[in-house]
Design brief:
heterotrimer; A alpha+beta; B alpha/beta; C alpha+beta; A: alpha+beta; Phosphoribosyl-aminoimidazole Synthetase, Chain A, domain 2; seven-stranded mixed beta sheet; 35% helix; C: alpha+beta; Mth169, Chain: A
Chain lengths: 778, 259, 75
Amino acid sequence: MPAERVPLLDADDEALLRLSRQRQLALSLEEMRAIQRHYRSLGREPTDVELETFAQTWSEHCVHKTFRGVIEYEGEVIRSLLRSTIARVTEELSPDWCFSVFEDNAGIVDFEGDYAIAFKVETHNHPSAIEPFGGAATGVGGVIRDILGVWGEPIANTDVLCFGPLDYPYERLPQGIKHPRFIFTHVVAGIGSYGNNMGIPTVNGAVLFDESYVGNPLVYCGTLGLVKKSCYMRSATPGDVLLLVGGRTGRDGIHGVTFASTELEEDAEEAFGTAVQIGDPIEEEKIKRAILQVRDERLGSAITDLGGGGLSSAVGEQAHRFGCGARVHLERVPLKYAGMKPWEIWVSESQERMLLIVPRRNLERVLEIFREEEVEASEIGELIPERVLRVYYGSEKVAEIDMDFLFGGLPEVRRKAEWAPPPLEEPEFEPPEPGEALLRVLSMPNVASKEEVIRTYDHEVKAQTVLKPLQGCFSGPGDAAVLKPLRHSWRGVAVSCGINPEYGKIDPYWMAASAIDEAVRNNLAVGGSRIALLDNFCWGSPEKPRNLGALVRAAKACYDIARAYGTPFISGKDSLYNESPMGSVTPTLLISAVGILEDVRRAVSMDFKERGASVYVLGMSRRELGGSQYYRMLGFLGRSVPRVVPQEARRTFRGVEEGIRRGLIRACHDVSEGGVGVALAEMCFSGGVGAEVELSRMPAESMRVDELLFSESNSRFIVEVARGMEEEFEELLRGCGAVFARLGVTGGRELVVRYEGREVVSLELERLRESWQSGVRV
Amino acid sequence: MSPRILVLRGPGTNCDAETVHALRELGAEPELVHVRRLVRTRALEAFEGLVIPGGFSYGDRIRSGAVLARMLSHALGRELQRFVDEGKPVLGICNGFQVLVETGVLPFGQVGEPALALMKNASARFEARWVHLLRCSDSELLGELPEVSEMPVANAEGRVVLPPGRAQEVLDELLQNSQVALRYCTPSGEPAEGRYPANPSGSFWDIAGLTTPNGRVLGMMPHPERAFSAYLHPCWTSGRGTEHGRVLLQGFVRCAGRA
Amino acid sequence: MKWEVRVAYRRGVQDPEGETTKSALEMLGYGCVEEVRSAKLFIIEGECTREEVEQMCRRLLANPVSQEYEIRRVE
């Protein structure tokens, strides 16, 4: 099966573009020209294997051209948005507890002694749109391999899912687009299946609904891992063996990367059908065991997953990383079936495969470990001193690529960005009865219970989940999960997230600021501290200046807020072509956060614990209802998007952190979608303990009762403080300079809300819980 | 003395680490052995107890536990039968319960054709939740487990099905031998009577765990190793944490120590 | 030779997948659906006799307590 020479040298622009399209290379004219110039200088035509290598290595998915390119925005020229915003936070803070940031498959932070925590979040949107079960399952499988790719033992998964409304009318669905309910059911099943089968608990996440996701759902999958720093091997040298381990290679998953960097068209199913696949979690479970054994015996010199671009990316990037080249023999790759062309083997993205680099002296032992676990392992080549990628198929050389051109020859992408505030108005309306409104907000799909989803995920396997996604004796919505990953230590890991695409419809800057604030306060609420962040941007095409403008604004907020909070970014990923025949998805930024707890026995859940305890609100409430669930329920978007005042927020955060450390706080819940009203209701029905509160005591701008109840101002918490501890708590908060007020007491079977003594809400816990549980039916 | 306990694993077993940890913490000497190795070494008799932990052995293909069960009954049938006949304690948790049922060892202690089945939950989906369990037997494997205990389940195929047409007859036999060890119940100890979610799988007669007639082989859907510390209980932050899983496993280890 | 083995729940054993599928189809407006039963299909190729395939069913493919099977030679 020989390689094909592709006639490129004499092609005109039109022919170059045609070639890129026909071969699904997703390369631009500029990029095709650069390749053409390179081969003209070599005086020969490229092989198909070579051309595919460029398509993979230069794809948006692999190199993040937009984030690393040049952007013109409002007269400003931004060189590498990544370096000037997100990575800059980490660089400027440069905390000594960051072990590895942005350079590996996952970000790694210190944990305890030799142990560190790795965290990575990926997206798998396009595959999930076409084959929701397989797309979501392989999304989970892929991010787990990212953790294996830093020699990490996967210890927990997270998932955040965005779908079209479940009641979306069938008749409005364009041709070729699956119904949101179908996608929802199958994505949830796919995520559960992979995580459950591998025995990795799914501990944190969110499910959101918006019309813009009908044609292009978002599936964010995250994995946390435990890394032993003394077994973190990253020092390959020429002569080391390239060992391909795991499942066999097939045509499945060919062009996944170029697929991810393309807009979804009506016929996507047909065109990219091979890009989608079903996973085999049991194969990956076996690979995991073998890799951890190789790690513990320190037998490897490097490792990476085979993700986007398959072998072509994995081999190239590893050789590049160690400043050498590689020789690969494609005929040694075990195949699922005969008849695959060399380039297909080279770029296949078949699941459940990893690339290990092993010093030759350790090879025998490594092969033995894989045999023990019944996992196939094949020596497919080795690292070589020359900086060149030589690929053979039998005796035929099918590619010889200069590494410097492969990794340095990509023409800089220049894009234009613009942003203007959308013409929005604050609505005027007669407010509905507050109690009725509260019940309705509780059943809004983005607020309502996701218990039916969460309980299909095993969230306790490994017996390390100390705070679960559902908290309190009545299964309330936890702010963050807490894990206790080491047997010999009480130290814990807190995992949380923040996401609110509604705000982005008003201003992506404040959406990003709010997402960071939410992820951080969720983490603090359970007792997390020393928080690190991950960013995942899901955007429409960056070739549309408005989309890119929104991206620039969001990235700038990431710098401003994370810098002010002292929370470094350790890893991130962007998915920038979320387009369907129905248009771009609404810009959606997921911020994931990982914090640590000195002692998990000090962790705090969000349910009210005791009768007769004091209820406090922390933080300033402003008239910020733009993008709120309350407005959405009434059919408005509004304009007054919640902002973040970092100096003020930090004082509140310090109060919560210290209050939990001193054991003063018995319950803590962040105020997010649905405002103080929803937060109070959730704390009541989760613990089976009512409360009586007086709203007029809230530190707030002047506003109506319904606005006090449902404003979504950031950086706020509701906390329960044990009887007799109030004075110490208030003194602590004053010492921190935090804004706060004692709203009332816990007790009874109802949530009673008064305003200047007048009862405005009086609802039994059962009614509140029923509304909350009725919102999303699986 | 600390009993040697074989913790069996195959591809897809995934609750082995926490099970081994729990047993070790209770003073046993657990040894994690891959089924292929056990088939090679046939070393079963060197152990005082056998635990088959939870997971998705062989991906639960065909049926939960079916493939691992055939590996055992086909390649190690005689050794397994002898182990059971000698009265050495055997515990199957979740997938391990499914395996023991598929080998025929549960409920009647005979390696061979299965006499009951663990099928897809009535809700047709995976169920991860804490349940209340009613203790119905004085089997020593249950140790000091109180009459009502709490542990989590996490499975998609946990519904006990008895042979249709003969269900009552088989149940009577099980009851006569007090082989029904654990039933799903309400917090106050009333049998769940099939009601969801107290009975999360729709299991026949609320059966959550079964033993052989001599009480030495226990299969159960709930996970004792996940109820091993009060900090794993969903209500520990309210001071309501229990450690019933630890209590049960203690009974098992003690029993193995006497074997 | 090619054999098809269909394994389904015995009558009288609750079939949750069948029931869920039925209610989902009803939700989509297919009022005509009276019953849905789920089954698993194994396609076995090779020089096997019917007796051998029978044996495979009894020993592995079906749990005789709750499942029944049907063997069909297709090639």
